## 1
Amino acid sequence: MKNAYESLLGGKQGAIGLLVLAVLILVVFPLALDSFRLSMVGKYLTYAFVAVGLVLCWGYGGILSLGQGIFFGLGGYCMAMFLKLEASDPESTKIQSTPGIPDFMDWNQITELPMMWQPFHSFSFTLLAVLAVPTLLALVIGIAMFKRRVGDVYFSIVTQAIAAILTILIIGQQGLTGGVNGITDLRTLNGWDIRDDSSKLILYFVNAALLIGCVLLGRFVLTSKLGRLLMAMRDKEERVRFSGYDVASFKIFVFCLAAAFSAIGGAMFALQVGFMSPSFVGIVPSIEMVIFAAVGGRMSLLGAVYGTLLVSFGKTYFSESFPELWLYLMGGLFIVVVMYFPNGLAGLWESHGRKWLSRFALGNKVFGQSVVKARVMSPVKVATPQPSRELETTP
Amino acid sequence: MDVSLSEFGAIAIMQGFNGLSVFCVLLLMALGLAIIFGQMGVINMAHGEFLTVGAYTTYVISSLTLQYFPAMQPYYFFFAIIAAFVIAGALGWLVESLMISKLYHRPLDTLLATWGLSLVMQQAFRSIFGAREVGAEMPAWIMGSWAPSEAIDIPRNGLFVMGLTLLCTVTIFLMLYRSRWGLQVRATMQNRVMSRAVGINTKKVDRMTFALGCGVAGVAGAAFTTIGSTGPTAGSLYIVDTFLTVVFGGAASLVGTIASAFSIAQAQSLMEFFLSGSMAKVLTLSAVILILMVRPQGLFSSKVRK
Amino acid sequence: MNSPAGFQAAKPVLSIEGLSVSFDGFKAVDNLNLYVDRNEVHVVIGPNGAGKTTLLDLICGKTKATAGSIDFDGRELSKMREYDIVRAGVGRKFQNPSIYENLTVFENLEMSYPKGRKVFGALFFKRSAEVIARVEEVAAEIFLSELLDMQADLLSHGQKQWLEIGMLLMQDPALLMLDEPVAGMSVSERVQTAELLNRISQGRSVLVIEHDMEFVKSIAHRVTVLHQGTVLAEGSMEAVQSNPKVIEVYLGH
């Protein structure tokens, strides 16, 4: 019991951090935001799955994938295919020359549902495919790259190239994928209308809960021996290899895990936003997701969520109000964060925020209680030695 | 298909020549990148934007000559090439000293920071030149074509670009392998500490190398204007191909870079004739990735003792 | 000159025969024969570029041989993967201390504990009392008992060398290979290390590369001199030191 508390919640500090996030996305946002804004947050939170995955494979594993959009997209497409088939029942598509197939297929003179689409009539198959298709692709890429010891930088470039290839393929195969417009006009999930406000609220909560689940799973991985191995590999790969570990298998594992997280995000995106298109697959969205993780802090699972929310809000705000400025800002953000704040917001919080919080609390007598807390909290890091040996250390 | 053998031969030659033009731009881009990535180990995602800088420079000079010295119009292109080299190189110098030099031990971070730089540069192009594509007015002698036989028709701009590429390649080769500077670059890349100990100013070497790589990308931009029109994202379209070219050739090998640029461009251009352009690209990129899995160190790298 | 090896009762734990490797035509190791006996501390010396480190690279699988065989306890190492070689009982220390600087001494040692080496094993690895006992035992052996909770990058250079040796001891290897274990150590640390090596060679074989002749004298049971990738001489330290060929190689012409 104590073990689970330590490894999942990361002890007292980790538990508080997680609680704050949970309250924010499960209570504060739903209460404070109107349904339009809330569904926007819901959309951003689907990107956070990717960012959380990137913390695992980039921050800890040192594997910078510039193709996470591939997995987000594949997860999304799998879900979208199911929803599209449901929206294309013969009744509502009777004006088409071939009723019962998705509208874009009809426009492309396709007269029969392609083989690839057949199994997506089944919801359980779809749920399986959402996870399995992207994870298997990651497995294949991972085995091919890491077993052959393709270096870090080469790996980044290759994943980017794969993202480019997949985008071209999706756009090129219009009849099969809906081309550049993607799969649009998704309506119901097993007969349940996903477009009205109440169902959107439910989907928002499902999404938020899944995200917290992924963060917990991420914590479990990072606090296990595997988490320490990842860090060790990042710094001294040879030493790990010559200590009897098959380095490639660990990299493959963490890359697949990150892919699976991204895929869940993609599927939730399709459900909440009601479409999926190649603009979430290619090079640009993939690298944007890296900046989410970088801004939040590449070594912090929670930071990645905050980073995603902040950058996405910024993007929406600036590209609505000052479209000219957005790319300057985004580019500048990349440069400044990477050069001067490699640990992102989480790093700033560790070095400044905590202190600021305790000083703030000191100034206000009302918060006398939290002073004590802050004081107890800060030495935890220094005084871990003896007890920590009994337990796993927390990153 | 109903084509006779001789017609087919002519098509193959023209398609092959088409591939050569692509090859030239790709090679010029890749040469710059090979110097920066292969010799310095720096990932410059903004490399494509230096091509765009060169292309816009050519465009500006072409407009200026047309307006103020119409008589010089036939010759402006030579100035444009030099200006493209100098401006892109100077910009590279600046970028190296402000950004890259602070990130030498963090290759993945360099990649991200230069990506940010590329976004900023693209938006700057958009703000200055507008989102619409522009084309430089070409001198008359560069247009038109050369027809050695009735069925074969080879555009003259392609020949010009080929000449330019050849000149650049030879110059870079001589600089890297026959000059004192080249020796310093290669020494620095092999053993930075030792080079510093024997009195090489390694910081200056880094800066020069990066600037040279960017300058060559600028020349690629000038060459690019003869075969296409320039938009803010013109260069970024090439960046993935270029990186694959360099990686495929074996990062530190110039001969490898040339060979891989040639095979990628030719494969793509020949396949384009049979398949759609996008499928040709998909197949080429996939093939490169597959080959990279078999030879992760690239085609032309030698086995070294570590 | 052939080694003055006498009658060998037991089969050597490591037999290298006809081993060669070339890099672009340059033969770093050329038709080399070398045997390491059980419970033996075998030191390899030789001028720079003699192929000493390459030899260790070949044994532990970092470099693949062009020809020849490396037999370890009846298993052919030259065809095995690096991690399988380690699991078979070969541990190797690198020339520069190679430890995990961001982890504590305890975690460094724990990392080499031979359980939880597969993905899911590592995921569900538990720090049991057994593990803690083993880590403490090894730490005592490498003089780091007091520093278990210190972050490894705060250790002195010599202590880092010991820590890496300790990480190897965690694996309890039958063959321990050390590449310049006392480089950068103070005199007293060297004495301690010699003592350490003599202690840990009980029940296992140790193959050491070293330049420091005083240190070699204090630990070696047998010395092999490498020159240009082949064995120049082999035998006791005294025999090797008085060998005219060896003197020529070391002192030049």
## 2
Amino acid sequence: MALVDVKSVTKRFGGLTAVSDVDLTVNTGEVHCLIGPNGAGKSTLFKLIVGLYPPTKGSIFFDSVDITQERPFARVQRGMSIKMQAPSVFKELPVRQNIQIALQERFSGAERDLEEERLLTMLDLASESSKLAGALSHGQQQWLEIGMALALQPQLLLLDEPTAGMSPEETFKTGELIKSFNAEGMTVLVVEHDMAFVRQIAQRVTVLHLGKIFARGSLETIIQDENVAEIYLGKTHAH
Amino acid sequence: MFKLLDGPQTLGRGRTFWSCFLAVLAAALIYPAFADSYDVGNFSYFLIWVFMALGLCLMWGYGGMLSFGQTFFFGISGYAYGVLAINMGGGSTTIAALVLSVIIAMIAAGILGYFMIWGGISGIFFGIVTLSATLVLAFFLGQTAGPEWHIGTARLNGFNGMKGMDPLTVGDFYIEGSALYYVMVALIVVVYIALRMLVNSRIGNVIVATRENPQRAEMLGYDVRKYQLFTFIIGSGLAGLSGALYTSWGQFITPSSIGLPAAAMPIVWVAFSGRSDLTATLVGSFLLLFGFQTITVYSQQAALVLMGTLLLATVMLAPQGFVLGVGKLVVDRWTGRRRRGANPALAESSRLQSDEA
Amino acid sequence: MSAELFSVFYQFADVFAFLILSAAGLAIVFGMMGVINMAHGEFIMCGAYVTVGLVKLGVPLAIAQALAAVTAGLIGVAVEYLIVRRLYKRPLDSLLATWGLSLIVTQSMLLIVGSSITGIGTPEGSFAIGGYTFSTYRLVLFACAVAVLIGLYVTFMKTRFGVMARATMQNAAMAKALGARTGRIYAISFGIGAGLAGLCGALYAPTMTLIPTMGATFVVESFVTVVVGGANVLLGTAPAAVFLAMIRMALNASYGQIIGQIGMLFAVILIIRVLPEGLSSVLVRRGR
């Protein structure tokens, strides 16, 4: 059962084709990783799914509804929840208020207060709750933003490089968190280039290369795919 | 209800603050018993402008939308009150004229706001488009001196302005002098409390979230454009309330209340006071209006030079606003003394929010 | 027929010149630094007053105008150094600060020199084509507007300063790392902007009544031209002026000046709904 269905989507910026005729299916209940070397078009594809820009061609379905022309807030109201690459929290507002703003549409009254405490504890931010969000460390801001995305109780959680700037321990913990939410039935799409993290969480993987689908399949088949290793190693050598 | 009044978006909380609030209110209520009627009239005059300042504070400080169009809506509503009061024949219909003219200003704000907000302009351009509209309205009204410019029986009269409308009236009773003063005080209290509740509500949460990071707010499922338009309509509607009250107070309005330098005044009041807080804006605007009026008696130009200097000095020296800065200093002293010995980290984190209740 | 055609061109040229001359200085400063100089109108006023003052002292008009532009430019450099420089990271604050300055200057002028001074009168000279008479000075203004556009193009595209300035405009940190003295570039750009405002005032001084608040006459036109033109001065301002001048000319001819101005404002509000980043964003996109 496909929750997200990207159908032959192309995105051009002027003369540059960032994403070219891509099909992508994310099934209900899976953790799906979108990987690929830098410049593969991962983030562009992510932003197309999120609705930050319209595709040049093709269409995008969510839960069998065509959402190609919908703005991000409408997609979120349908059950998506998004965490962008760079931490983007409400920096001048206290941590607690950040969470409240995310929670207030789903919960109210005592239920909201309970959920607020639960999230703050889960994110290890309970003791920082009256700090301004901008005063948190980079990793904590990432956590806070993941918490805000989870507060929406989405059907589909979309994460763009959620572990960027995190320590290995924090990364591992994030992975376990994602797995626990998946176990409760949440579908997750993660854009990632950290292969260790992908191994930790992914069930299915799509590899993007030069704006096109390069390979797709279960985690095991992708790991063993020599061509995939090559585009990654090639890129690694170049560093 | 109390949670909304005392929520995180507004400084000045707890028993101490509300005690002060009630004391000031009580003083304001008994003031006409001690002052002569001229001073009471002057006080009413200062209070007229406070609505406009609070509206700008909501849009700019809370919503992040710097509108230079407060006098645009002030003018629309002020002229609308004149036209309606003259054509509907005065008497108790002036109350309807007041309400309708504020609604007209809000409709105008809805239209202008729709084009700007759905067009995605923000920041500086939001300011200069609203200012352009303001100046064009002032130019337009300035050249309506001829007899052909009339709406019903109301002559627009160009630079000399429109006059001859009734003041607010109930039956045969003109709301003037201390009656007008009490109406003003009541309206200020209602608007102030309502705005406090608004900014501390769920909607207020989204308004400040949009100011901080519109994209993030949208990604939490909020159609931020609607919230911005709502904020713009409320803020501009308050300018409209000032305008209609002004026309009824003096029974005239001229284009000079709309164009430059009038358009700069709300910006000066709110910037100087501290745009991020309603209470600071309320107090600061009142002080500035009082000072301005005192100097204007001697020289209007000198008073305006002072306003310009205050704006420049605020931006260069205290971008968050002078009144707010002083207010925070006082609160710091106060809570510092009460918390001595308490956890210093905690005191630091609550520096901005004297949550002693 | 050709006389009528010329008459249409003449009216277009008149409005176009007004838009370009009033907006060029504002557009430079906005394009270079993202700052809207709210004292723009006061630099225009300064240019006008200096011109009239010098002419009354016996200086020939053209020289007086040039000196007036230079004076405004120098004052601009000083304002940049004293105020704007401290606020580069806060464009809204620099707008407010220059607005404060604008209030101080206009009201002080009202206090010191009073409400209006006698003008110097438009230079005579007119010519006739068909049954119509045209003022030569209005065509001089048009020529000046075109010269300003060409001058800006040459300055920013062909000189070393222009290369540095454009690099700074694109990415100030990078330009600085590559050795551009961005502080000086900003000061010069602000000076050029103020000088162009002064030039505008100097050129229009003979045609209008001089009052300290005269700057307000120009600001609406300069604002809307910059809003429609967008951030790229070289690409956006001239097309914006052409576009607005056509609307304005058509409305002026049929309904008079004030309806022309209102119509122009409505057009601008409609445009920002469709093109929030102004014309230059479209032109840049097409150019790719």
